[in-house]
């Protein structure tokens, strides 16, 4: 894994770790999706938080109060763009991205249908 990638796909915010290798990206995404399905299959209360650590931020996915995934390395500009997009669409997709030298990294949620969709029921205030 190299970095964090963020894109709007049809206006929906898609975020996740960026990989050079497609197989590594697929493995990582399937690992936390499997963990989500196995550990939290009954009642799933999903929350998305932003934590600040000195000069960088982390996106934290909590399920039933426990950390499912932590994506570190976000900067303030990315956090603002992410917040604005989530407030507009009330959706967030967490997936892995692959950079195989193409023009822009491709999200596995789009190319292979691998990703976690978080829907926000209440409006962000």
Number of continuous helical runs:
3
SSE order, as H and E? EEHEEEHEEEHE
What share of residues is helical?
25-40%
The count of strands amounts to: 9
Shape: globular
Radius of gyration from the alpha-carbon trace, in angstroms: 14 Å
Concise synopsis of the structure shown:
The protein contains 3 helices and 9 strands; from the N terminus they run ββαβββαβββαβ.
Overview of the structural elements:
The chain has three helices and nine strands. The chain is globular. The strands form two sheets. Strands 1, 2, 6, 7, 8 and 9 form a six-stranded mixed sheet that branches. A three-stranded antiparallel sheet has the order 3-4-5. Strand 1 (3-9) and strand 2 form a beta hairpin. The protein has a domain at 3-40 and 76-119. The chain is an alpha+beta fold and 125 residues long. 29% of the residues lie in helices and 42% in strands.
